[in-house]
Amino acid sequence: MMDDDLLDLIAKLEPALAIAFLAAIASLRAGINYPLLLTALRNGDIDGAIYALNIDRGAFGAYVIERQSAFAQAGATISEALTKDRIAFFKRRDREPSIRSPALPPAELEPVGPSGPLTPAPPAPPTLTAPGGGELHFRFDMTNPRAEARIRTEAAARVTGYVDEQIETARRVIADGFARGDGPQNIATDIAGRINPISGRRQGGIVGLSDPQAGYVDSMRARLLSGDPDEMAKVLGSFDKDGKWKPGTGMTLRDRRYDGAIKRAIAAIAKGKPNPLTRDKIDEMTAKYADRLLARRAEDVARTETAQGVMMARAEATAQALDRDALDDQAVEKTWRHLGGIDDARDTHLAMHGRSVTGLTMPFILPDGSVMQHAHDPAGGAKNNVNCRCGTDFIIDWSWGL
User: Fold this and answer.
1) Backbone phi, psi, residue 49, to 5°
2) Residues of the chain with pLDDT under 50
3) Given this model, what pLDDT does residue 130 score?
4) Are 282 and 224 in contact (CB under 8 A)?
5) What's the half-sphere exposure (Cβ side, CA atoms, 13 Å) at 78?
6) Which of the residues 198, 270, 337, 402 has the least number of beta carbons within 10 Å of its own beta carbon?
């Protein structure tokens, strides 16, 4: 399977996983018991507030199913590619003596009759490793215990991670709110967001965001509430002498439709007037920002975890092909490929480009000491996986042992 084919497969599977992740977050938001949350916050009961959020693993059911489906689709596609690769190898071997099995020794000669001429002995009967190699059709077996364990363990770990993260982030936001002296209503809104009167769904809030993203939302709110023109300007970012915004500065995923209101507020405060932005207006702005952060997170999750699933399927499909063809682990050579550009690339991954190891289970050792079976191996952690554009070639020597 070529690198472009691998990237195309990942791109094909990404959107469905992003939708499933967003559906899980929508389920979590819809399950918040807001009156109970507000009561718990009024009583200073953090555990009661967490209980009211109703964050549990069940919300991610469709997400888990989608991960399993993507793993199965990728495995089937890769197994089909392995079948074609094996057939092509043996066809080439038949045509090209240089890649055939070692030549048999010259046939022994035997006499014909008491004094007749010598003739070659009859050839030995064909064996299972004769030219042509026989045709095997590899089918990806999702019922294989090893395959089941791969995807079940990884999907479960991700769901557990999401649930634990949401609970810990909510605890931090509640504690920070109390420390600032915020009222229960404001803290509840910061966490749960608001009900959109048109859609009837909750918008904004920190449910579904990563902890750093929740921090970005807190920072935006604090800057807009500060009444400090310099702090408020950080939301908008920096501008050149011609007034053009410098890309990458400010809260880049903010809804720029509010920029005019923020600029007018900064100008008013600079003239000694009070901050015209109300808490409700600022909550509206941060809710839009939070929703855009969530959409970005869904994209990042889908890209990262789809790539993980495809590479795990590639490793598993290769293992199943070895089992089916009775080949040794050492018949596989793995090569790390950096498939992305240079900009924002990890130095450690650039250094790994083109490095090979022999053996399906032989790991790669990255310059930072990380040990990974292949690109996107969950064992490498977030630092080696988030938005990574690398891949790993698994090349099978179909003539192994012939």
Assistant:
1) -65, -40
2) 101, 103-104, 107, 109, 124-132
3) 37
4) yes
5) 31
6) 198
What is the Cα–Cα distance from 151 to 159, expressed in whole angstroms? Answer: 12
Per-residue model confidence (pLDDT) at position 202: 83
- Tokens standing for residue 27: 């389920």
Q: What does the pLDDT read at residue 127? A: 38
Question: What is the rounded distance in angstroms from the CA atom of residue 225 to the CA atom of residue 228?
Answer: 8
H-run or E-run covering 14: helix 3-30
In sequence order, what are the beta bridge partners of 335? 356, 393
Q: What one-letter code names the amino acid at 125? A: P
Query: What's the pLDDT score for residue 92?
Result: 87
Other C-beta atoms within 10 Å of 47: how many? 9
User: Who's near 175: CB < 8 A, 6+ residues apart?
Assistant: 46
Token couple for 98: 């240089």
Look at the block and give the residue holding tokens 């089909």: 80
User: What pLDDT score was predicted for residue 97?
Assistant: 59
The C-alpha atoms of residue 71 and residue 315 are separated, in whole angstroms, by 11
Q: How far apart are CA 214 and CA 169, in angstroms?
A: 8
The rounded distance, in Å, linking the Cα atoms of 271 and 62 is: 54
Q: What are phi and psi of 237, to 5 degrees?
A: 100, -165
Residue type, 387: N
Residue with tokens 């859609």: 199
Helix (H) or strand (E) holding 80: helix 61-95
Sign of the four-CA dihedral 225, 229, 231, 235: positive
Nearest to 207 by CA among 158, 156, 174, 170: 170
Q: Hey, CA dihedral for 39, 40, 44, 49, is it positive or negative?
A: negative
**pLDDT at res. 5:** 80
Token pair, residue 41, equals 């916050």
Looking up tokens 């990380």 gives 370
154 burial type by CB count under 10 A (0-12 exposed, 13-18 middle, 19+ buried): middle
**Tens-digit pLDDT profile for residues 66-97:** 999 999 999 999 999 999 999 999 888 877 75
Task: Please tell me the pTM assigned to this model.
Answer: 0.84
Token match 């550009």: residue? 341
